Amino acid sequence: MPVLVEPDPTTVATLLAAMPAGAHGVNAPDRMLAWLDQHPDEYVVVLGPSLSVDAALAACDELRIARPTVSVVLVADALDTSLLTRAMKAGARDVVQSDDVAAIGTAIRQAHQLFQALRGPGGAVQLGRVITVFSPKGGVGKTTMAVNLALALTEGGARKVCLVDLDLAFGDVAITMQLFPTHSIEQAVGSEESLDMALLDGLLTRHQDSLMVLAAPPHPDVRERVTPALVLRILRTLREGFDFVVVDTSPSFDDQVLTALDETDECVIVATLDVPTLKNVKVALETLEMLDIASGHRHLLLNRADDAVGIGADKVESILGMPVSAQVATSIDIAAATNAGTPIVVGDPRHPSSEAIRALAAALTGAPVAPPTPITGAEPAASALGDDKRSGSIFRRKKGFAS
Ligand SMILES: Nc1ncnc2c1ncn2[C@@H]1O[C@H](COP(=O)(O)OP(=O)(O)O)[C@@H](O)[C@H]1O
Ligand SMILES: [Mg+2]
């Protein structure tokens, strides 16, 4: 999947539109290097026009030695002989003018041909993993945690992550992230048989820190038209283009959520320290067990874990019969960061809540998730960890759980 390095968000949008569906944008060369560490099958890096010439040429030079199978396409606002000469010397495969959209497309196609020729036939597609954030109760922090977890998983652009809002009637991922989507899952309605990455790509909304969001429909009545088959098709398609697909859910076992749960590799269950929530979480866990959903891959996240109500984490563990994987305290900073459109893991990476969420992200990937500062070393590829478990079809057994 082509990766574009470009600091200016408007230019990112323009250039991504000229690139193949699924192309990924990062805002700095160090993020691109982190991306390449995670994606050994990458074939092209496009360096955007807002990078300084020196930074772009330095990146070319580094890739020429470190990743010879990756073609570098340099996009510049104006071409002159001196730039062309320097670019070729640094190892750029192509230099194109930023307003020549067709030339960018051609350069990427040629890079792909070259890569295939170098690699030879074959080469399996690596599927991404689905992480679902669920709780039978509303208001416990599912959306807040899903948003922050998804951002933590991007590692500032080194991984490609899509956040899907499956709270189809009252989804608030977009508003929580201060996004104003022009499209949502609504435009996929009816595409159970035909949906592909190209169509989905047009429905996603980009958050500043290279996270893509599939928003919930703006009106609750659309929910009925989002069939389980469509949800399944969406998640399976997203797996092919993203390293992680994070699903935020409604607080009920409705058909769509059950379908997502059935397609889930890792399930994060959010609980708070009040008796009604704990009771409902216990029932939900029993239901997951009965349906054989994410068995051995369930992670309990205690939100507002500091609430002084006489129930501690150890009590929760004995009530629910499973260990607490992560604890996040009540903090006005969390709500404030979300309301400002910069969720806490990005806005304040050293905050204890951010550390806790990153630690959970690390547990989910099996790889350490670094704070969003420039990283120099390579992390093990997340996709190399964990088996890709899929259970049988939900359609055989979902009856009786629809809300
Ligand atoms: N740990 C926390 N500390 C303070 N406020 C929180 C915390 N977790 C969630 N919130 C706030 O609680 C409200 C409900 O959270 P939300 O994520 O929308 O819950 P849900 O998706 O489960 O309905 C939001 O206003 C959110 O900012
Ligand atoms: Mg929510």
**SSE order:** EHEHEHEHEHEHEHHEEHEHEHEHEHHH
Q: Helix count, per DSSP?
A: 15
Beta-strand portion reads 15-25%
Uncertain parts: 373-403
CATH class of the largest domain: Alpha Beta
Overall pLDDT confidence: 87
The biggest beta sheet is recorded as: 8 strands, mixed
Which structural class best describes the helix and strand composition? alpha/beta
Number of domains: 2
Ligands, ions, cofactors: adenosine-5'-diphosphate, magnesium ion
- Count all strands and give the number: 13
Helix content: 25-40%
CATH architecture descriptor name of the largest domain? 3-Layer(aba) Sandwich
What features would you describe in this structure?
By secondary structure, the protein is of the alpha/beta class. It folds into two domains: 117 residues, Response regulator (Rossmann fold); 268 residues, 3-Layer(aba) Sandwich (Rossmann fold), CATH 3.40.50.300. 39% of the residues lie in helices and 15% in strands. It is built from 15 helices and 13 strands. The strands form two sheets. It has an eight-stranded mixed sheet with strand order 8-9-7-10-6-11-12-13, sandwiched between helices. A five-stranded parallel sheet has the order 2-1-3-4-5, with helices on both faces. It is elongated. The C terminus is likely disordered. The protein binds adenosine-5'-diphosphate (ADP) and magnesium ion (MG). Magnesium ion binds next to helix 6.
